[in-house]
Each structure stands twice: as C-alpha cells, then as structure tokens.
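pinging the channel bc i need a second pair of eyes. not urgent but kinda urgent?? the chain im working w is below, pasted from the shared doc
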Amino acid sequence: MANIKSAKKRVLTSEKNRVRNVAWKSSIKTAVKKVLELAAAKDNKTLAQAMSKVYQLCDKAVGKGILHKNTAARKKSRLTVAVNKLTAK
C-alpha cells in the first residue's frame, strides 16, 4: 500500500474506475450475446434494435475512454459479419 496521501487517493480512484470499466465492458458483452441469439432466431425486428443498442454502447464507451476507438470499430464490424452469416442461412 502507498504511503503518500495523494498515492492513496489515486489507488481509490483507480479502483472506482476499474469497477466502472468492468461494468461497461460486461454490458457490451451481454448486448452482443443477445444480438447473436436474436440473429440465430431470425427475429429481424428486435435484432435491428439490439444491434443499434450495441453500437450505442460501444460509441459511448469510446467517449468515456473505456474502449479505444479501433477496438469499438472492430467489435462492431465482427458483430455485423457474424449477424450477416447467421441471417443468411
């Protein structure tokens, strides 16, 4: 544990940020899983809304500094490719 007061504060701040970041990333993963399930079930109306939600979550995470912009772009691209494969069958 740190001895300097500012370092102790920084440890607390870092932990709060870590918990926030984990929660955001988890919500993105959950939304992606939901989209893949809807794509497999071929529920196109709900699928479009769910895809929009994933895109929104990724973009907000970039804005908050939780994800790098290229990471978000990669996630969205891979999701789109996966959905297109599932719905084409």
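so Residues 5-41 form the longest helix (37 residues). and DSSP finds three helices and no strands in the chain. — does that match what u expected or am i reading it wrong
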